[in-house]
Amino acid sequence: MKQNFAIALLASLLFSSCDKLFVIDIPDADQLVVVNSFFNGDEELSLTVTKSMQPQQNEEVVELKDAIVALFRDNTFVENLSYYKSPVDSLGRFYSSTIPVSGSTYKVEVEAEHQSKVITQSELPSMVDIVMDKAIWVKWITAEDSAFTIRYFFEIAFNDPPEDNFYYITASVPVYKLDTINNTSRFEAWQYAEIVTGELPNHELYINNALLFKDANFNASLKKITGTATMYSIPDHFIYNEDKSFVLDKSMLHMELHSLSKDAFNFCSSYAKKLATQDDVYSEPTVIYTNVENGLGVFAGESIAKKDILIHY
After folding, report:
1. Phi-psi region of 258 (alpha: psi -120 to 50; beta: other; left: phi over 0)
2. What is this structure's pTM?
3. CA-to-CA distance for 183 and 176, rounded, in angstroms?
4. Less Cβ crowding at N or C end of the chain, within 10 Å?
5. In the chain, what are the domains?
6. pLDDT tens digits, residue range 237-287?
7. pLDDT (tens digit per residue) in 134-190
C-alpha cells in the first residue's frame, strides 16, 4: 500500500503544473555481501569481503572482517580463510594456503553476521602458452612538448584448445626507478601499450589497454596475432611529483595472454561495455556480471602466460 501511494504521488507530481518541491523518503535497499577475487595458479587464493554501497553515496567501504570464509575444491572442504590487512593496502583480504590447480573448480561460502549466506564458485582454466613471438621497433615520434611516441610491430601465436576459450592480451614495457647514489635500479611498474590489430575483429577494449576476445572464429587451431603496440610518454623517464628517476626500458616488450574462465570473461565483458559508454549520458545502463549467489561481486579464475620479447631495431 505504501509503495502504491508513493507511485501515485510521483505520478501526480510529474503531471502537475505546481512548482512545489516534495521530498519522498524512500528506505535504503538492503546492503549485500560483496565477494571479489580473480585467482590464478601462481599464488595462494585470496579474496575481499565487503558490504555493498548505496547508489550515489560517498561512503567508506565496509569490510566484513569477522566473516567465516570456507574454501572448497571440487566440492570437498579445504580450509577456512584468515583475514589480514597489510599497512600499504586500502582493503584487507581473506587468505588461504591453497594455490589453485588448473582443471579444478573452487567454491567459497561466506557467512557474516546479519547477512544471508553467500556462495560462489568458478574453475581455473588451463594455461595456453605463447609459442611464437617477435617484436620490432618501427617508429619514434617526438612532439613539440618533448613527449614521444614509441611504436612496435609484434607477432605472437598460441595453440587454442578444442573447448570454448576466453582470453585477453596486454602489451607493456617495464619502468625502473634509479638509485643514482648506489648506481642501482629496481622494477617499479608496467607502462601499458595501446594495441591495434586486425586479427581480432570482435574484440572489446578492457582495462590496461587489454583486448578481450573469445575463440569462436579459430577454435582448436594455431592462432597468430599481429599488430602494433604504441606507448605515449616523455623522453627516457616518467615524472611523478617532479621525480625524474624513473626510466622506461625500451629494449623489451612484455606480452601477456590471459586464459579466462567463463565467469571471468563475462565479468570483463560487462565491465568493458560500461567503460565504452561511461561518457555517453544517453547510453543504456550496463549491468555488471556477478556469479555470487545472494550477493554481489565476482569470483573467477584466470591463467596467465607471460613472454618477454627482446626488441629488434
Report:
1. beta
2. 0.84
3. 12
4. N
5. 31-123 (2.60.40), 130-310 (no CATH)
6. 454 445 567 778 888 999 999 999 999 999 999 999 999 888 887 888 889
7. 998 877 665 555 566 889 999 999 999 999 999 999 999 998 888 878 888 899 889
